[in-house]
Amino acid sequence: MPIKKICCIGAGYVGGPTSTVIALKCPDIQVWVTDLNAERIRMWNSKDLPIFEPGLGDIVNACRGRNLFFSTEVEKHVADADLIFISVNTPTKAYGVGKGKAPDMTSIESAARMIGRVAMGKKIVVEKSTVPVKAAESIKRILQAAENKNAQFEVLSNPEFLAEGSAVQNLFHPDRVLIGADQTTDGCCAARLLAEIYEAWVPASVILTVNTWSSELAKLYANAMLAQRISSVNAASELCEVTGADVSEVAKAVGMDSRIGSKFLEASIGFGGSCFQKDILSLVYLYEHYGLQNGAEYWRQIIVMNEYQRSRFCRIIVSAMFNTVARKQITIFGFAFKQNTGDTRESSSITVGRYLLEEGARVNIYDPEVLEHVIISDLTTDSTLQETDQGLGMNSLEVKLRDRVTVCHNAYKAAAGSHAIVICTEWDLFKALDYEEIYTSMQKPAFIFDGKMLLNHAALKAIGFEVHCIGKRI
Ligand code: NAD
Ligand code: UGA
Predict the structure, then answer these.
(1) Burial of 356: CB neighbours in 10 Å, binned 0-12, 13-18, 19+
(2) For residues 181 and 156, is the Cβ–Cβ distance under 8 A?
(3) What pTM was estimated for this model as a whole?
(4) Is 164 annotated as a binding residue?
(5) How distant, in Å, are the alpha carbons of 98, 174, 346, 421 from that of 461?
(6) pLDDT in tens, 72-130
(7) Secondary structure of the chain: what % helix, strand, coil (to 5)?
(8) Is the ipTM of this structure higher than 0.90?
(9) Residues that are catalytic
(10) What's the 165 CA to ligand 2 centre distance in angstroms?
(11) Residues with Cβ within 6 A of ligand 1?
(12) What is the rounded CA–CA span in Å between residue 297 and residue 179?
């Protein structure tokens, strides 16, 4: 029987856009997106969606109330859905066994326990969240342990590969849709029903059905290998700076080899986002769990290089500014972890901002999408920053930091009076600014540190800026 009702548990960056696109492409299916977070659901039901994602608002408007609904009544919609996506967060564990490495499976487990308890009839339970290999086994055991005689379950893996900022396009035209299933008649039948949903708009040739463990592992490996490319090109950037090579030219030449490909070779101040680091750590933990230390060490280095790149960039800033930024005003352009999102999770801007604060600077931030309270919280809450002995004279460390952070709503106002501009996010709009006007309004010498290789450095130099960037001597 075809799927008539879907319930997605978790209305986040994955659950929201994925469910919305399914609702658009499959008007005969009712799609309920559910979450325990009432504020998030309230926003999905309002005109101010809880996430900024280009193109998403129009689709939500077209489908909401027709066959797309957002609700906090998770249990009610799980109970009578034919197919349930588990799309909850799986962050790195911050406590106990596996702290700092293993993914925290608390939300997955509590969703599975709830499904086991309330489900009625035949259910296909789909892991959409990124999970370690064998997570489907744990979900199955939890569902069976519920001894719910009214329900029958089939568990599938269907990891999501969308990237924030291009989620809608990625969902419309996925490189592949991956479905992992038990190699049994029931498993294959469930996989077919899920594939039929995607076939409404995705060519069957890119829908790949594999065994469950391959599917779970392929998701972790895809992210690890994308991050590995960035760390590889970032490792090249330091060598370029000392030898006189230009990392963009090196990346272009390397990427023109069709076996390597040109994407994901942009040097930067390091990758951010909620997943690359988390998923590599999860992979490292998996290797260690099976006693495979060499593989663990190999992948750990991708993160080591990322952290090194971030701190190296911070040191470049301080060193260029006569070895001190104390009491200087530095403007950070961009706080999101990449352009076209308001998400700041693991953003390199946080590392840079905190470093500059620790060095005693006053920091102005301008980002077109990130909310002020998010910036303040990222820079000052749970901070491990040590007080610098700059006689800045406030009692509480947090209050003191807050006092030195200004969130601005205009790039020109943010830059005015500053000693330096630091580009931390590749927002296109930073390219279109009038840098002559900005230069005039700044302290001299006026520095620009381009952490994203975004701007025209020759033009900036001609205006009078002292320009520094990653991967190229200027
Ligand atoms: P998110 O934090 O934005 O959203 C998760 C949502 O789940 C939250 O709103 C939370 O309130 C809700 N939730 C948690 N436990 C719940 C429960 N028991 N019942 C109901 N709701 C519950 O997370 P996200 O960025 O959407 O990521 C979700 C998963 O998808 C993660 O495993 C992540 O690794 C993976 N993923 C994320 C992306 C991305 O671009 N963000 C891309 C691919 C895969
Ligand atoms: C990434 C993957 O691209 C998605 O396929 C995956 O589904 C997702 O993680 C996930 O599992 O969460 P995302 O983190 O949203 O998507 O964004 P990316 O475009 O991958 O960018 C990640 C970071 O790498 C950003 O900070 C970006 O600026 C940086 N980056 C990207 C570089 O520094 N250089 C590049 O060449 C590309």
Answers:
(1) buried
(2) yes
(3) 0.95
(4) yes
(5) 49, 41, 31, 14
(6) 999 999 999 999 999 999 999 999 999 999 999 999 999 999 999 999 999 999 999 99
(7) 45, 15, 40
(8) yes
(9) 275
(10) 10
(11) 9-15, 35-37, 40, 74, 87-90, 107, 110-111, 129-130, 160, 162, 164, 274-275
(12) 29
